[in-house]
Design brief:
The protein has 316 residues and is mostly helical. The chain has two domains: 68 residues, no CATH class; 239 residues, Hypothetical protein af1432, CATH 1.10.3210.10. 57% of the residues lie in helices and 5% in strands. It has a four-stranded antiparallel sheet. A hairpin with a 6-residue loop joins strand 2 and strand 3. Helix 4 packs antiparallel against helix 5, helix 5 packs across helix 8 and helix 7 runs antiparallel to helix 8. The longest helix is centred in the N-terminal third of the chain and has 21 residues. The mean pLDDT is 92. The protein binds fe (ii) ion. Fe (ii) ion binds next to loops.
Length: 316
């Protein structure tokens, strides 16, 4: 007896007119007892098919096609973000899901050029959303995950950095570089012992010494990936430098720390404080920023902290 195919439901609103599908799309028959082919692989979604889509309640792909479907979403993410019929919160959710998938891939294989390319698509999707509609910044910030994991932390930091850069009027190129730098800032953690990364509590001195290597490891990975932009590289290498020179890995201070690294540093601390860890409850945004102002003034760039506060205040 043949094994029964498994089908996974998909969001039909994300199928973009004029684009080739490289997976098969199915609909269920009326009694929902069987699947029939709705669109063949390699077909281009034309206007007629798009209209037909409206009539169908739910579409599916088989297990084999799901990966291709996910890649297709990422590939067309900027078109999806521009779709006037898709609500902002749904756009933010699609962006976040794509980013989470890519970060998983990148942490498993930090030399994957395909994942790097896909990261760029998603970062540009975030930017497209942040620039297109003032409400999008709110949708993006609302969707940041509230439990701390290295991958979701990276996405959150990228969203905060892009929102801050947008608030400060950065050019699209600068936003794209800043977003990439923030997304990849902890990629060096892929080289650190899993038990240290996921330790439930404070690290020993030796473990902390190992953990600190992630900044320089991340820089090396970025170089391997062919990243040459000094801003992107410095955000990765120097996000743990401190204004007083007591940070790592290079112990540089003040304006020797690039603007990208100072922004990523602030967004990094803000997200670490406002997400829940197994050993601590999350701080509210207000309490996190108060703590950053009071206790981290020798560590973080207070101008950036103030700009971050103004951005949060203005979006309310
Ligand atoms: Fe870090």
């Amino acid at each position: 007896m043949s094994k029964k195919k498994k089908f996974i439901s998909i969001d039909k609103r994300l199928l973009t007119e004029g684009k080739t599908l490289n997976f098969e799309v199915y609909e269920s028959n009326e009694s929902k007892s069987a699947m029939t082919l709705f669109l063949q692989s390699d077909s281009v979604l034309d206007g007629t098919a798009k209209i037909q889509l409206r009539e169908v309640e739910q579409l599916y792909v088989d297990e084999m096609g799901y990966e291709a479907y996910e890649k297709y979403i990422t590939q067309h993410i900027q078109t999806i973000v521009k779709d006037p019929e898709l609500p902002l919160d749904d756009k933010a959710a699609v962006l976040y899901e794509s980013a989470a998938r890519i970060l998983d891939k990148l942490f498993q294989d930090p030399e994957s050029l395909e994942a790097l390319q896909e990261s760029k698509e998603v970062v540009n999707g975030f930017i497209e959303a942040a620039l297109s509609d003032p409400g999008a910044v709110q949708s993006l910030m609302k969707i940041t995950a509230h439990d701390y994991y290295t991958h979701t932390h990276s996405i959150n930091v990228s969203i905060y950095a892009i929102c801050l850069g947008t608030y400060l009027g950065f050019s699209e190129t600068a936003l794209s570089d800043l977003g990439m730098s923030a997304l990849l800032h902890d990629i060096g953690k892929s080289q650190i012992d899993y038990d240290i990364i996921n330790k439930n509590g404070a690290l020993s001195d030796e473990e902390f010494a190992q953990m600190k290597n992630h900044a320089a490891f991340g820089y090396d990975i970025a170089l391997h990936l062919g990243i040459t932009d000094r801003g992107i590289l410095s955000g990765i290498r120097h996000h743990h430098e401190k204004m007083d020179g007591h940070g790592y890995p290079d112990g540089i201070e003040k304006k020797n720390i690039s603007r990208f690294a100072r922004i990523v540093g602030v967004c990094d601390v803000f997200d670490a404080l406002t997400t829940k860890r197994s050993y601590k409850d999350p701080f509210s945004s207000f309490d996190a920023l108060a703590l950053m102002k009071k206790r981290m003034d020798t560590h973080l760039d207070m101008d950036v902290v103030d700009q971050f506060i103004m951005m949060l205040r203005d979006r309310e």
